[in-house]
Automatic annotation (TrEMBL):
UniProt lineage: Bacteria, Bacillati, Actinomycetota, Actinomycetes, Kitasatosporales
PANTHER family per record: CYCLIC DI-GMP PHOSPHODIESTERASE TM_0186-RELATED, LIPOPROTEIN
Superkingdom assignment: Bacteria
Keywords: Membrane, Transmembrane, Transmembrane helix
InterPro entries membership: Cyclic_di-GMP/3'3'-cGAMP_PDE, HD/PDEase_dom, HD_domain, HD_GYP_dom, HDIG_dom
Region called Disordered, residue ranges: 420-454
Record-given protein name: HD-GYP domain-containing protein
């Protein structure tokens, strides 16, 4: 149990004892043992298959047990599958005990709620308008117990951060728990409907075999879900490989791509874009400089002004980047952002000198995010500016170089969420003490790639 705080281990033991107390009366109540063993076996098998495919737990079987069996027997259904499931992280024994106890308590609470509301009679003689009420309450109880226990172990397993003297660290307990509960409720509700269908068919003349057939469409859904996650993981791996290659080539901008991605997401959310577009803008920000792989390293690391010939070579990097990513279909409009993120609203940018609305919206978002991070990060040729100074510079250039709507969105997002300090290539925080001159007020003017104009 190395690495697990003592308070978390005590919490797991307490939850396990509570689960045993819930299961213990099973010998004192009437329960169809063959049904309990069959459900426990099905759950154990589905749990092993689901976890091997990384698609989560088979809740319909557990909830069907809660609708069919007395609370102690329903809680017992969860134990074999949880105790025998594959665990990759250590301590394995503690994690198995925790999962078994957590599920047993959640199923017991669901079964108890269902039986108290008369759900047993509704399942035996199906009356669907009436049967849905106790089943819905049972699903709520199941989800409530799961998220409360999960939040408890997360809180105890993570050490509290250090805070300055005289201040108290407070975990936003209610907000975190509500987030867990709301995210879990919809999937658990769907599983609850499948569990109710299983319970009704189980009690019908068709019997348990018909009830188990309900799992077939669930298996198809799990397979599709697993395929989606594997494809998503492949996308993330592709992006990580490209970004790492850029970071290796240009060490002074290490972390820049991730920060531009984060700033692009802040702008996109402030503009009210849907989640799919927000994710696309994150990809665009992360990959906007991938074309630097085609630029000679000596130019990227040059400490000093660029000659006109060197500038022309560097200004080819958007086209290089577009060539690299145009075959990656899942990037969508992010590919246009890679190509056009150095265009300017007044038409003086590159590579094609587009102006106004002819510049894709994704490129206008990334242009603001890129400039903001470039100004607030220390590089070989420039020192970081404070966030307030960078914001004033963006506002000064809005309408000529940047889209004013994107600048306003970033300013609003910074006002709400702030901005984490940037880091240099060696990972040390950038100092923010002392004023930094604004371009045009005592400092050399810089071009669109951040270098001093010769």
């Amino acid at each position: 149990m190395d690495g697990v705080p003592a308070r978390a281990r005590v919490y797991v033991v307490c939850v396990a004892v509570a689960a045993l107390l819930c299961v213990w009366p099973v010998s004192q109540v009437y329960a169809p043992w063959w049904a309990m063993l069959l459900l426990a076996g099905v759950y154990a098998g589905s749990e092993l298959v689901a976890r091997s495919r990384s698609v989560g737990t088979c809740y319909p079987v557990l909830l069907a047990g809660a609708f069919l069996l007395p609370p102690p027997a329903a809680a017992l259904v969860a134990l074999p599958g949880a105790l025998l499931s594959t665990v990759t992280r250590r301590p394995r024994g503690l994690r198995r005990i925790w999962r078994a106890a957590q599920l047993a308590l959640a199923v017991w609470a669901a079964a108890r709620t269902h039986w108290q509301l008369g759900g047993r009679d509704a399942v035996v003689e199906p009356d669907f308008p009436y049967a849905l009420a106790p089943a819905g309450a049972a699903v709520l109880a199941f989800c409530l117990v799961l998220t409360l226990l999960d939040h408890g172990i997360r809180t105890l397993a993570v050490a509290a951060p250090r805070v300055p003297a005289g201040r108290r660290w407070r975990l936003p307990t209610g907000r975190v728990w509500r987030g867990l509960f709301l995210r879990s409720l919809a999937p658990v509700a769907v599983h609850g409907l499948a569990g109710l269908m299983m319970a009704v068919l189980w009690r019908s003349p068709y019997g348990p075999v018909a009830a188990l057939l309900v799992l077939l469409p669930m298996c198809v859904a799990w397979w599709a879900f697993a395929q989606y996650h594997r494809e998503r993981a492949a996308h993330q791996a592709t992006i990580r490989a490209l970004v790492q290659a850029v970071d290796i080539k240009d060490g002074y901008t290490r972390g820049h791509s991730e920060r531009v991605g984060r700033a692009s997401v802040m702008i996109a959310r402030e503009l009210g874009m849907d989640d799919e577009r927000v994710e696309t803008l994150r990809f665009a920000g992360i990959l906007h400089d991938v074309g630097k792989l085609g630029v000679p390293t000596r130019l990227l690391r040059k400490d000093g002004p660029l000659t006109p010939e060197e500038r022309r070579v560097i200004e080819l990097h958007p086209e290089y980047g577009h060539e690299m990513v145009r075959g990656i279909r899942f990037l969508g409009e992010a590919r246009a952002a890679v190509l056009h993120h150095h265009e300017r609203l007044d038409g003086s940018g590159y590579p094609y000198g587009l102006a106004g609305d002819r510049i894709p919206e994704s490129a206008r978002v990334v242009a603001v995010a890129d400039a903001f991070d470039a100004m607030t990060s220390t590089r070989s040729y420039s020192r970081a500016r404070p966030v307030a100074v960078a914001v004033r510079e963006l506002q000064r250039c809005a309408g000529g170089q940047f889209d004013p709507r994107m600048v306003r969105a970033l300013v609003r997002a910074l006002g709400r969420h702030g901005w984490h300090p940037s880091v240099t290539a060696d990972g040390t925080p950038v100092p923010r003490t002392g004023p930094v001159p604004v371009p045009g007020q005592g400092e050399d003017t810089r071009d669109s790639v951040g270098r001093r104009v010769p």
